[in-house]
C-alpha cells in the first residue's frame, strides 16, 4: 500500500509505510497540528504576563520566569520520551504526554498561587514536548534525508501558525475574559491532540527497528550520540541558533510592552511578524533543497542570523532604549526568520544517520535547544544593562557559537546514501 498524499491515511500496518517514496503532505500537516501545542503554550499567554503579574502581586519580570519553568519541563520530558518511544513505538508516548498536558493546563487555569503556576507550567511542558519528539522521529522513520528536510518545512508551515496567531489570540481572549481563559483554551487543544492521535496517527516504528537495548544503557546511548560528529555539530549548533529565539521569547514582554509601551494587541501583531518570517523562509527552504545542498543552505541561514544578532548587539550597546523601535524589531525579525533556513536542515542532518535511535536523537536535539533557552534566560538576568543591549548580548553570543559549530560539519557528508 502506498502512502497517501492528499488525504489523511487509514491505519495500515507499520511495515507497509516505512520509507515511502511519496511525500505524505496531509499526514505531515496533521503532525504539525500535534506539535503546534508547544508554541501555543509558550506564546499565547505572553500578552497576559503584565495582567498576571498584577493579579499575583509580582513584577512582570518575575512572572516571565514561568517561561524558563516551561523550558525545564521540555528538557527533561524529551529526554524521557525519546528512548521510551524508540522502545515501545510512537503512539503510546503521545497518549501519556497529552493526558499529562491536559491535567497540568487545568491546574494552571485554576490556581491562585504563582509558584503553583510555575509548577503547572513545568508539567504542561512535560506533556507537550512528546509531540515534538514523536513527530520528528516518525518523520525520520518514514522518509529520506531530503524528504525529511522538506517535511519539517511543511510541518513548520502548520505549527508556525501557532506563534503567528497565538499572541494575538491571547490578546483577544484578554479583551473579553481574564488570563485564566487562555489556559482553558490550551486544555481544549490538548484534548484535540488526543483525538488526532486516536483517529489519525498511525505507528511508524516497526518491531524490527525498535531499540531493544536495556533501559539501563540509556545514558550511555545518549553519550554515544553526543560523541557522533554527524549528530553533535548539527544538533548542538542548531540548538544554539534556535535557543536564542527562546531568549527573545523570555524577554519579549518586558522589552516591547514595558520598555517601549506597546499595547497587548500590538504586541501580538509584532510577535506574529517574526513567526511569519520564520514560516515564510521554511517554505522557501523547500524550493532551495531541490537546488542546493542542505548544508549550504544551513550555513547561509546561520550567517544571516549572526549578522542580524550582531547588529542588535551594537544597537543596544550604543543606543540602548533610545534605539528606534522599528530598527530593534528589524534585527530581531531577521534573527528569527533565519531559523526557517537553519532548523529544518540542521534537524534533517542530525537525524539522518540515526535509525534505531531516532527518538533519542530527536529528544536530545530538542533538549539541547531548550537547555540553551534556560541558560539564555538566566544569562539575561546577569547583565544590569538596558533591555535592548541585554537581549543583543545573549542572542549574539549564542548565535555566533551556533554558527561556528555549523561550520564544523563535514562538508563531504553524503545524505543521499542514508537509508
TrEMBL record:
Domain Major facilitator superfamily (MFS) profile: 27-411
Keywords, ordered alphabetically: Cell inner membrane, Cell membrane, Membrane, Transmembrane, Transmembrane helix, Transport
Main localisation: membrane
Pfam families linked to this entry: MFS_1
CDD domains recorded: MFS_MdfA_MDR_like
Subcellular location: Cell inner membrane; Cell membrane
Keyword Transmembrane tagged: yes
Highest taxon listed in the record's lineage: Bacteria
Transmembrane annotation, as ranges: 21-42, 62-81, 93-112, 118-139, 151-176, 182-201, 231-249, 269-288, 300-318, 324-342, 363-383, 389-407
Membrane topology label: Multi-pass membrane protein
Family note: Belongs to the major facilitator superfamily. Bcr/CmlA family.
NCBIfam families: efflux_Bcr_CflA
PANTHER family listed in its UniProt record: MAJOR FACILITATOR SUPERFAMILY (PTHR23502), POLYAMINE TRANSPORTER 2-RELATED (PTHR23502:SF132)
UniProt protein name: Bcr/CflA family efflux transporter
UniProt source species: Psychrobacter coccoides
